[in-house]
Design a protein that fits this description.
alpha/beta; Aminopeptidase; 2 domains; about 280 residues; six-stranded mixed sheet; three-stranded antiparallel sheet; 10 helices
Length: about 280
């Protein structure tokens, strides 16, 4: 199947011989009002510098949620997506940022990062060669009560009434054709389909097209790094969807949405030999 499900932040393995990422990342002053970040695991912040945001919180059970989606796809339709899970904790390596930020240039973390992205890259190339098109679903968790579907369009972009006027591209641009409004937040959009399955509020969707002043994550490194070859959507799951007793049923609904979405967009391709 030409689908990759990524869950980079669900891991909880903490190798004791690898420094925590909290030991690096320093904001050095450019002037009295601005600073820049340096990323090195043995960096010591200078006086009056600000520590940079490293992102080290675990997205609990997102790895299980990814596996449950894959299991449902296989059980119900016989589809076998590719699943990529981060095993190391986010405090040791951050797979959804550029390599310098994600590893602080620590050798073991660099090797782990490269392994994760090497598998994604090789799989994307395989899908591109065999099928010509496909989809990456990159799963994350959030601390809010709504889901964020990220297409690399910031909240300020989604605030406009007509997305077709934007000069920036989305992460599913080949699927949009001449109508970004429909593919990003129309009745056939991924977010709308999630809501129709009873999976809570989703931004953007037909009913909730604009996040407004709410916290909204548009997608990170994984979403942006592969879109020259494949479509990608970052999904930020609230705990009510991914971590409650209903999470297995919710994963089944996600599998249904993925199949419906890929079929309607005419990008579903099958290969029974895929794993």
């Amino acid at each position: 199947m030409n689908l990759i499900i990524s869950a980079p932040h669900g891991g909880n393995v903490n190798p004791t011989d690898v420094p925590d990422r909290s030991s690096g990342g320093c904001g050095r002053k450019l002037n009295s009002t601005a600073f820049y970040c340096t990323w090195n695991y043995n960096d010591t912040c200078v006086e009056n510098a600000n520590p940079c945001d490293l992102g080290a919180i675990r997205d609990v059970l997102t790895d299980e949620f990814a596996q449950n989606i894959a299991n449902e796809l296989n059980k119900t339709w016989g589809y076998k997506p590719f699943v990529v899970l981060g095993v190391w904790s986010r405090g040791k390596v951050e797979f959804n940022r550029p390599i310098i930020e994600g590893t602080l240039q620590q050798p073991e973390s660099v090797a782990s990062f490269q392994g994760y992205h090497s598998f994604i890259s090789q799989t994307v190339d395989q899908i591109k060669q065999k099928f010509g098109t496909g989809l990456v679903i990159d799963l994350h968790g959030n601390a809010f009560n709504y889901t964020m579907a990220g297409y690399l369009l910031k909240s300020k972009h989604l605030s406009v009434d007509n997305l077709n006027t934007l000069t920036v591209n989305s992460s599913i641009e080949p699927l949009c054709g001449s109508d970004r409004n429909e593919c990003i937040r129309g009745l056939s959009s991924f977010g709308t389909k999630l809501e129709q399955k009873g999976l809570g509020v989703v931004y953007p969707s037909f009913s909730n097209p604009k996040p407004g002043n709410l916290t909204y994550f548009e997608g990170g490194y994984i979403t942006s790094n592969y879109i020259s070859k494949i479509n990608a959507i970052q999904i930020e799951l609230p705990a009510a969807i991914s971590s409650t007793k209903n999470r297995t049923d919710n994963a089944k609904k996600y599998a249904q949405v993925i199949v419906e979405y890929m079929r309607e967009r005419n990008i579903l391709r099958l290969n029974t030999a895929a794993t």
